[in-house]
Amino acid sequence: MINSVLKAVEIMNTFSADHPRRSLAEFSDITGYPKTTIYTLAATLVNQGLLEKNGDSYSLGHAIIRMSQAVRVNVELRDRAAPLLRELADRARESVYLAVPDGERILYIYAIESSHRLSSRSALGDRAYYHSTSVGKAMLAFMDDDERTRVLESTGLPAMTPNTITALAELEHELSETRSRGYSFDRSENEPGTYCIGAPILDARGRVVAACSVSGNSETLLTELLP
């Protein structure tokens, strides 16, 4: 592996929704690399449009957006699903999300935000645990047994809210029910006051490749949208 590339990736991974800007000192504190090394790498990333310099701080650059549009899963899945998800959002009058597996987490790749959503920030691009989200549980339920075991052993079942399922036996029971009925629930388990119904998206071979969800701020959503 090329160390300079790894270091550049580490710098870019310091950004998050809560920390969209970073200074050279923060890069150095988080990565442990000298400021002189960070400065050179950051200048290169700025030159390529992967970072933007704003005074004494840096943020991710517009080149990231261009690159994300070329990701296979975005092109092949998101673009095909988008018209159907917009129709679902219009009917439900709630937020609708599309997520895919991303290692030991799920990644939101498409979002139609309702005006009722309390957060001022879109969930697009967020990563979350499988066990605490409806999209994650929908994917877990239809996932290969070995893969599901690997994911859960890697992450554990941390409590995101007081309602998060943190006992494996309870989660396995819920996943069994999800397989039987074909959809999953998030009963304010990932974000306080947010309720979701999720469903898996399977490929032609019956393998789960993604999941979508309808999300709202009222618990009545869990019954009003179902037959």
What does this structure look like?
The protein is 42% helix and 22% strand. The chain has helices at 3-12, 24-31, 35-47, 63-68, 72-92, 134-141, 145-155, 168-181, 221-224, and strands at residues 22-23, 51-54, 57-60, 95-102, 105-112, 127-128, 184-187, 195-202, 208-216. The strands form 2 sheets. The protein has a 6-stranded antiparallel β-sheet, sandwiched between helices. Strand 2 (51-54) and strand 3 (57-60) form a beta hairpin. Helix 1 (3-12) crosses helix 3, helix 2 (24-31) packs across helix 3 (35-47) and helix 6 (134-141) packs across helix 8 (168-181). The chain starts with a helix and ends with a helix.
Task: Please describe the topology of this protein.
Elements: H1 3-12, E1 22-23, H2 24-31, H3 35-47, E2 51-54, E3 57-60, H4 63-68, H5 72-92, E4 95-102, E5 105-112, E6 127-128, H6 134-141, H7 145-155, H8 168-181, E7 184-187, E8 195-202, E9 208-216, H9 221-224
Antiparallel strand pairs: 1-3, 2-3, 4-5, 4-9, 5-6, 7-8, 8-9
Helix pairs in contact: 1-3, 2-3, 6-8
Average pLDDT for all residues: 89
What is the N-to-C order of secondary-structure elements (H for helix, E for strand)? HEHHEEHHEEEHHHEEEH
Number of helical regions: 9
| Secondary-structure content class | alpha+beta
User: What is the CA-atom radius of gyration, in angstroms?
Assistant: 19 Å
Cα distance spanning the termini? 54 Å
Numbering strands along the chain, what is their spatial order in the largest sheet? 6-5-4-9-8-7
Secondary structure: number of strands: 9
What share of residues is helical?
Answer: 40-55%
Specify the overall morphology. globular
Largest sheet: 6 strands, antiparallel
Poorly predicted ranges: none
What fraction of the residues are assigned to beta strands by DSSP? 15-25%
